[in-house]
Amino acid sequence: MKDTDVGAGDKASRAQLPSYALLGRMVAETRRASDIFPLLHEDAVAAVGGRCSVLLQIDPRTALLHPTSALGIDRLPPEPWMLTSAEARAADEAFSNEAPLFVADLQARLPALAERLGTCSALLVPLFQLRTPLALLVIGVREPIASVPERLLSVAHAFVLAIERARLHREAQLQQEVRRLLDAFSRVASSALNLTTGLEVFCRDANRLFNAERTSIWLHDRQARALVLTASSDPSYLARGTRVSIESAHSPAAAAMRRPRAEIHDAPQEDAASMAASTITVPLKGRRRALGTLVFESVHADPGAELDLLDNADLVGRQLSGAVENVQLLEDVLRSRREMEKTVNSLPDLVAVCDASLQLMNVNQAFAERVGLGRDQMVGRLLTDFLGLDATSWLRKLDVCGAGAAIAQSYTHELDDAILGGRFSITVSTLLAPEGDPLGVILVARDITPQTRLEAERTALRDRLTQSEKLAALGQFIAGIAHELNNPLQAVLGHAELMRRRTGLTRDVHRDLQIVYREADRAAKIVRNLLVFAGKRRLARRLVNVNTVVGKALSNRASACRAGGIEIVRQLDEHAPKILADPLLLQEAILNIVINAEQAVAAKGGGRIEARTKSWPARNLVVIEIRDTGPGIPPEVMARIFEPFYTTKEVGQGTGLGLAITYGIVQEHGGHVLAATHQEGGAVFTVELPTGRG
User: How many Å apart are CA 661 and CA 666, to the nearest integer?
Assistant: First the structure.
């Protein structure tokens, strides 16, 4: 598939592929997120034989519906669609039922919507993400719809994925733009040691980023208790030299500085054709004090983009706040050594000032504590003595004090440093004299280890969510197939049993009937196992002790493990609370994990299986952990390990249903099962089950 177009060959293949497979491929392979929605609208309209469709996304701040994409509608209004009370009731009904709602007499019930769609009837399809209303897909149809096609439900799931992908794409683009914008600000402000010059560059770039008519920055003068207009993208506005009291009730900038987050202020309706005259105010807050206010005036927002405006503005405000505070502190360093010691030493970032040969002239307390030396012991030594090999190599490649250093130069690099002990974002800037001659180098190293760890956890959570959604969709699909197979299988088993009981059958006929019955019964067991994976089996719940369940599962395999040279180690928490569960099904789930571990360890010629239980009172959970010393789980297997019929074993050695059944049983108990490769080797399966007597 090309980036944006679906050619004749692709359209032909669309008729041959199942809808869920094609839609998944479309979302995965379409390069630009904005190109996915026209294809999904096309499939949604085709699935019900409609004529047009529109996607209305919910603004979580206002709960209003915003039209963001459509098919067969000439023009999307930029403002939110103000539904009538009848339309709102219809939308609420669709969201409450969590199912598509067909509205037959559209002109009578929803006249405003009928005028926009140009149809007599419509299908309202609610879209959810983790049971939270996300958007409403409205499809204009000509004829009544008796039942909702399965293909339309697949399209609805694809819309949810596409909306999330578009949101992540916008966030990534904004992150790039913000980094570029702040890099430009840092280069100018750090090289010239002039905060105002850097902020003027920032205002011009931010003005384009937010499509505003004017961007201004007001900084807080603490002694005068006033806000001073310091920089603006409009030179004539800046020339006024405006300042206002921080207590002013009429100044949006003063009011915004006291707010926790960005706010949007709409101009009077007679002054704005749509949202074109909106003003956004963003408080600038440092680690210990308010820095001022960032103001975007007359912001022009594309349809749909207004949903993220305030979040984007908050992100820019936070990043700018950190950059402004760092520059202000560096100005204090040059203004007064005493002030430098009071302020720079309070920074959690590592700061070092060097001469042109990288000999340290001063460091802050955080840097000294990080390397475990006194500041006096570090001054006079080379900066590279306190940095790892990667940081040293990168620093020596830079020519921040060489020819042309009078021009603004600033470089930022992220790396892991063994000596400093963590991952750091290191910024190196040229230190210039008032005459413009290079004096040395300023290094600021920010420990981003927590952010990196948080991002890794966020990525893992996103992958886990994607895997859960995929398995949930697969479970629904398999449940439908299993139910359809179950009826004919029961008929085959019943008739085969009746024929086996007949007298007068020859031995050959009886043997053939025995084979038919045995194989049909095997197929029926597979169907029952699939229903367990899909969570369609009724549980016989009672209060059980997880230690007892785990112990029975381990005892079941004790003799086989001894024969295979496998040691079983138990670490069971005697104080683990009881849980409400089906003990037989839960034992089957644990047994499947133990068998899987046993086979992995046996492939290495023996080893150890460790079973551990523990309670997690803070989250009302009981955790069961099964770890083996086998080869671990390859990354390509991890993404499919709980899928039915997926196995890495040879043909005839496994059905690929064991872990799928475990997944279904744990999900039916309201828990989670996770698979991972242990850092010391081998696989580890973690089962989290809720406690309680409910």
Answer: 9
